[in-house]
Amino acid sequence: MVALRLASSGLLALLAVLLAPVVARSEALTVAALRLSSSGPLFIAQDRGHFAAEGLEVGFRFFTAAQPVAVAVTTGDADFGVTGLTAGFYNLAGKGALKIVAAQSADVPGFPLSAYLATPKAADAGLKGLGDFPGRSLGITQTGSTFHYMIGLLARKQGFDLARVRLVPLQSIPNMVSAFKGGQVDALILPSSVALPMIASGEGRLLGWVGDVTPWQLGALFTSGRNAAERRPLVARFVRAYVRGAAEYHAAFNARDAAGRPARGPGYDTLMPILEKYTQQPAARLATGLPHVDPAGRLDVGDIHEQVAWWQAQKMVDAAVEAAAIVDLGFVEGHRNVPR
Amino acid sequence: MKGGGERPVPFRGGGFEARRSRLLPPAALAGLVLVWHVAVAGGLANPLFLPSPVSVAAALWELAQSGALAVHLAASVGRVVTGWAIGTALGLAVGLAIGIVSAARAVGMPLVSALFPIPKIAILPLFILWFGIGEPSKVATIAAGVFFPTVIAAVGGVDQVPRSLIRMGQSFGMPVAAIVWRIVVPGALPIVLSGFRITVAIAVILVVAAEMIGADEGLGAFVLMAGNLMRTDQLLAGVVVLSALGLAGAGLISFAERLLLRWR
Amino acid sequence: MELLLEGVSHAYGDLPVLEGIDLTVRDGEILCLIGPSGSGKSTLLAIMGGLLRPSGGRVATRGAPPDGCLNPLTYVFQDFALLPWRTVAGNVALALEHHRLPRGERRSRVGNALAAMGLGEFAGAFPRQLSGGMRQRVGIARALVVRPAVLLLDEPLSALDAQTRDLLTEEFLTLWRRERTTAVLVTHNLAEALRLGDRVAVLSRRPGRLREILTVDVPRDERSRPERAGRLAEMSAHLWSLLRTEAQAADRELADRR
């Protein structure tokens, strides 16, 4: 099957070369993504014609979990991917299959993106603060997921042993929520769009926001190692359009008023329908949890190095993976916190 | 026929016999591994998609060395054995009842036929609601998967017990219980045992599904984690252990067959 | 022990197979039942032993069973009905296992029955290892172990080849002479009926009625003598003439059988 795939992709490449003079104007690209507001810059760049302006004809392939997005780019089913950074991602990237080229969303202070939530029962039994996790259970999607990393970050920050928190893999957010409501886990880390209604109804008690406690680079835009090496001009055009979308997203959705409260920035009303269209969620729901996206697509590179090191310490990412090799800094100016 | 000369009669028989071979099964396995290795080493298959048998063996060795293998194996074997035993005990009881009592057949068979095709993996969330997130829901998933094929095997086994044997038992004035225990049950045993071959495999398949939810130990949990982490070498190492587990189960059933079905 | 049948009739659904059978099996006799196929011989035998409830009429026994009899009406089956998973001894012992017997008696009964049928050295063998004749010997040993009052033999020899059949017939007679157990033998073999039977009852084609009961007026011990052959041939010819017309008619009937 693998051989077949390689053969067919070779055939496609040949075809592309033969047809290149005919369709030089507009290049077709596939982007793998999730229907989440954190992919907003992508949707905006598409809808507002930034991709088209770069001569790119972009099609989306939507998935429901981060893992398949990375796999789709690895196998060549998609040219770019936008999603959260997981241990699985780093293992694929470490083998040269993937290169991070720009930032997606990040947990940063003042932006309620990911919430620590306790069940009322667990809260009454003493799970009141962020240092109370040891000895309790936390539902996550999967080992190696972003949720797994966030509790790892908290353990480091609060100085407790992660081994003392019982991590319960539940595969999906709906499963996590039902296990939480059934009292089968004591706590969860949840995206705000899911967490806020539960806090409002009293089904969950808010312990804090990840961005306030342990800011980190949650997601990224990435492409295949081969694209980054062999089709650099194309990648550059794509990233340019993506960053334009990111800038518009940031201006509209990440604005804060003088008191630091969320405010509607310029373009909010024109861009919100785009998010509604692609995420298939109502504006009212989206508005409660618009994640922070860097306006220039700049990555917190040092944080990515830390992530890789932490996963390696957990023995979940191959020790041979080199963080510096999986980030390609050449497409965006001014990446932050770049280790020397 | 013209000519009328002497001509040897060509041999046309033979074949279609199950002959045991000691050499062929391991040779086939070794051949598969060799083809696999050559494909990866020769660059035919991308090691990212298909790790070489060497790296799978290395992952397996590391797993065994760290003691993790023993922990995962113990957790999964415990679940498989408990779930299989419960599913089998209930399945045999229900299957015998359906096979023997007409009223039970009228009620039971449609129910079994209706419930059997439900994928147990799909109703795993229900099991979690009913039995919680811990061991009971995992064991229940395996037991449910084992139960239905066991019922069907037991009914089939009872059905193929020759009625003449039952009449014989009646002709000697044997009480019903004695007819069931001395004629029906042993007569159904061959089919029940071949049903066990299938249910053991089902139990191994379902332990992986059961360990998707809320398990941090177990071969299924390990394989899923390896998949999540894209550690394909570890994933295949786990798969190798799972298939060895299935093989061991099949071996036990063969042993039981040799022991219990000596008369065949 | 005698076996009395009064007005026995039977039907499978609305298909009558037996009608108005009045018959007494006398104590210590061998009664052979013959008839064309489909005449209900086996059905009648099943009714005699209580394995089938007749649609009409009644079946009764008269007289006391012999000492130590555990199962007065005992069958020997055409297909032997041996449990393939039990050894020869196990199959014979099966007939005793649901009776409360001292262990010693159980062992001696099984041992005697096996010895009587010449099965001593095969006690540990499984049925599949035995020839057809040996299997039926096990079937007979299993019947003997309960010391029956009436033996009901349902074509016990018809699954065997001719030589085995002759051997087993002689063996059975030798045994029978010792106990003189009342026996009913269903057969379709006239020679067998005339070799074994005190009387031969002939059933008509379906629905089976009693056509005739022939008393074999040659003493059993003299039946193999050449000077008796004439008389036996006469009886055989008579029985065959009775059967022949019935069999021909029955044969043509098969087409409209449900």
Structure description:
The complex is a heterotrimer of chains A (340), B (264) and C (258). With 340 residues, chain A is of the alpha/beta class. Chain A has 16 helices and twelve strands. In chain A, strands 2-1-3-11-4 form a five-stranded mixed β-sheet, with helices on both faces. About 3% of the residues of chain A have low confidence. Chain B has one domain: MetI-like (MetI-like fold, Orthogonal Bundle). Chain B contains ten helices and no strands. In chain B, helix 8 packs parallel to helix 9. Helix content of chain C is 37%, strand content 23%. Chain C has 258 residues and is of the alpha/beta class. In chain C, 42% of the residues are buried. In chain C, the strands form two sheets. Chain C has a six-stranded mixed β-sheet, sandwiched between helices. Chain C has a three-stranded antiparallel β-sheet with strand order 2-1-4, with helices on one face. Chain C starts with a strand and ends in a 5-residue tail after the last helix. Chains in contact: A-B, B-C. Chains A and B meet through helix 1, helix 4, helix 5, strand 8 and helix 8 of A and helix 5 and helix 9 of B.
Note the main attributes of this structure.
heterotrimer; A: 340 residues; alpha/beta; D-Maltodextrin-Binding Protein, domain 2; five-stranded mixed β-sheet; 16 helices; B: MetI-like fold
Q: What's this model, at a glance?
A:
The complex is a heterotrimer of chains A (340), B (264) and C (258). With 340 residues, chain A is an alpha/beta fold.
Oligomer: heterotrimer
Spatial order of the strands in the main sheet of chain C?
5-6-7-3-8-9
Q: What is the CATH-assigned architecture of chain B?
A: Orthogonal Bundle
- The structure class of chain B reads mainly alpha
The largest sheet of chain C, given as strand count, sense and whether it forms a barrel, is: 6 strands, mixed
Strand fraction of chain B equals under 5%
Total tally of structural domains of chain C: 2
Order of helices and strands of chain C: EEEHEEHHHEHEHEEH
Q: Sheet bearing the most strands of chain B, described?
A: none
The CATH class of the largest domain in chain C turns out to be: Alpha Beta
Helicity of chain B, as a percent range: over 70%
What is the average per-residue confidence, as pLDDT of chain C, rounded to a whole number?
90
What's the level 1 CATH class of chain B? Mainly Alpha
